[in-house]
Amino acid sequence: MHKFLTSTLAAVALTAAHSHALLIDFTAAEGYADGDVNGQEGWARVFGPEPLFEVSDAATSGVLAPVATGGAVFRNFSDAELGGTFDNSSSLVEYSMTYELIGPTGGPFNQNVVLRIGAPFGSESVSFTFRQDGFVSYTDGDGFVGGPGIGTGTHTLTGQIDYATNTYSAFIDGTELFTPFTRSIANAGTATAVLRLDAGGTLATINIDSVGLAIPEPTSAALMLGAVGLLALRRRRA
After folding, report:
1. Does residue 187 contact residue 118 with C-beta atoms inside 8 Å?
2. I need a labelling partner for 134 at 20 to 30 A (CA). Which of 103, 157, 162, 217 fits?
3. What is the three-class DSSP state of 47?
């Protein structure tokens, strides 16, 4: 199993933001081993069955996928991993997730994987729902929004959360997920530097190639927005 060009470009987007940003690829080089992700490299289970998400192919490309339903895992990011000090009143945070939706598409609404940013246990700032029917939806300060149909294959979500203005942006493969360019975020005052992954009520065939968070240097924050435009240039797995 090979990483997609999109995963590489996600790294480009984050390293354009900060040279020390952490992009997790779930590989042995990062300390991961095949099996339950709970307890590995800072990941912990919030609730639900165990194992819930499992790592596979750690020796080569590394993939994380749900193996059960109705639960969540999370990981906090330290300031050193972010490349800067997180402050939920002023920070600009950049995020990335590369995933593969494996067909067939369809199934119930709750056949999904959810990425939540900002809180391991309570209300997150932003969340994205990657559904088995190929749609990506999002929840923010304006409530739940049904997003566009993306389809099967490998895709990369990137964007910025601006805690100074309580807004965020999002791109799928370099294309804006919504217009206008930014939307409001929720619960900024309680946000933390954390990523959480939820497995829906029905098992989804979604592989996660990489996830990451970064705090950009002031002089390079704009570079990320240019880098995400490259994410449309992707190719399928070999």
Report:
1. yes
2. 162
3. strand
